[in-house]
Amino acid sequence: MPREVLHLLLELPGEADMQTLRAAGDAGGGALLGAFSQWSSDQGSGDLTSLPVEAFRELACGFFEWCGWGTTSVSTSSDTLIEVSITDCWEAQRREGSPSGCHLTTGLLHGFFAGLAGYELGVMELECAGLGSGGACRFVIGTPEMVDSIYAGLSAGGSYEEIVSPRD
Ligand SMILES: [Zn+2]
After folding, report:
1. How far is the CA of 135 from the centre of ligand 1 (A)?
2. Per-residue model confidence as pLDDT tens digits over 4-41
3. Closest alpha carbon to 30 in 55, 2, 11, 54
4. Residue ranges making up the domain that contains 62
5. Which of 5, 80, 87, 130 could covalently link to 92 via disulfide, CB atoms 3.0 to 4.6 Å apart?
6. Residue 135: CATH number of its domain
């Protein structure tokens, strides 16, 4: 059950590094996906893999909010990228001191969406409320190559919107 998964994750030592947090999140992502399947069928949804994209997005948002993640939106700006935005993100809110981003959530999203897709995906947090963005925590999910190229573009000073929109 997801609340238990989150509870377990919250018991991690405060000094756990980014890799440890991501790995813990990734491991929990499979359990989260299992809970999502159960929750969806409790809601009367059919087979997840045959849901239209719009219905899937609504369902996934409802589930993440039910898990206590915060106000969540899931969007797809292209066929190959999923964007997840979390306002009042649970992980950003639990941090004190010097946060370095929502690594547990990044790992959870990886485990969840890669498990759902059945192939490897990359996940990156684009903006973090805990790092002073002031808004929502925003994540992007795509193939590892796409996420790598977004990372490279951002590192080179580009904006996410420029990087992912097709050039004229
Ligand atoms: Zn964050």
Report:
1. 10
2. 555 555 566 566 788 888 998 899 999 999 999 999 99
3. 2
4. 2-164
5. 130
6. 3.30.1380.20
